[in-house]
Design brief:
- It is built from 10 helices and 12 strands.
- Strands 10-9-8-7-6-3-12-11 form an 8-stranded mixed β-sheet, covered by helices on one side. The protein has a two-stranded antiparallel ribbon with strand order 1-2.
- The longest helix has 16 residues.
- It is of the alpha/beta class.
């Protein structure tokens, strides 16, 4: 059973040291109870208390952040099944997918257009959140050059679409910031997991069904990875809705921590569009 903020507070050091980033232990306890903070942020909690608080401290859907030199995108940390039940704190990010097979001029022009795209909608600034760069060429040098070209034209966060560890490493070395690495699967999970861990970046994992997805996330967590993004590889709006709802219910209602991560969705699988939606 979930603990209240006061119950959690009684197990904290109660020193109000602010090392967790909150002004008091009580404020931190309230955030823990609301699944909006993590117990590891308190460096002084005892091992005994930590064992008791583990289930209450971790959000059912983990917060994952990717960063460019100009801001960051945070997704996850969700505590409700339906959006109308809570303020929409972490909105999905919309990324434009570009391939490293584009020539330099076309890539530069595309990045400039997207980076400068802003629309004011009743006081809300609508814009794209970054770029997803695909290693379509299969060449590490071309992929690194494309990542460098995108980074030269924008400071927005990026996603590196490269399942080959060698290509992924080349992209990471050129990317800077803190990109999302896509993707680990049944064949490459260990190499991609080690690469993501050594580079301190979040890693997406893809699998054809939820059982396989659950198995892969458990393996990656065993490597010490904590920031994971899920791709259930669904095709079509109906399958997307059914699968994403199932993932959310398993994380929130059944407390399956192995599936308690944000989701990445590719509309291009349906209609050939270029956008990539990173959903909470």
């Amino acid at each position: 059973m979930a603990l209240s903020g006061l119950e959690i507070y009684k197990m904290l050091p109660q020193t109000n040291c602010k090392d967790c980033g909150y002004p008091t232990c009580l404020a931190f306890a309230m955030k823990l109870a609301a699944k909006q903070a993590e117990l590891k942020d308190c460096p002084h909690v005892s091992e005994e208390a930590a064992a008791k608080l583990e289930a209450a401290a971790a959000p059912p859907i983990r917060l994952v952040e990717i960063q460019g030199s100009d801001g960051k995108l945070a997704v996850g940390n969700e505590t409700v099944l339906f959006r109308h039940e809570k303020t929409f704190y972490h909105k999905p990010g919309l990324f434009l997918r570009v391939a490293d097979t584009l020539d330099a001029a076309e890539l530069k022009d595309t990045v400039a257009k997207v980076d400068g795209f802003h629309v004011d909608y009743v006081g809300i600034d609508l814009h794209l959140d970054g770029f997803a760069i695909e290693a379509a060429s299969g060449d590490a040098g071309k992929f690194a050059d494309a990542v460098t070209a995108v980074r030269a034209g924008t400071e927005l966060p990026i996603i590196l679409l490269a399942s080959d560890p060698a290509l992924a490493k080349a992209g990471l070395e050129a990317a800077g910031g803190r990109p999302l690495l896509y993707a680990a699967d049944a064949d490459n999970w260990e190499a991609m997991g080690e690469l993501a861990k050594s580079s301190d970046v979040p890693l997406a994992v893809r699998a054809p069904d939820l059982d396989a997805l659950n198995d892969l996330t458990e393996k990656l967590k065993g490597l010490g990875l904590e920031e994971i993004v899920l791709d259930p590889t669904t095709v079509g709006f109906k399958e997307d809705l059914i699968t994403y709802t199932a993932l959310r219910r398993l994380a929130l209602k059944q407390n399956m921590r192995s599936l308690g991560f944000p989701i990445i969705s590719f509309p291009a699988r349906l209609d050939g569009a270029d956008e990539v939606l990173l959903a909470a």
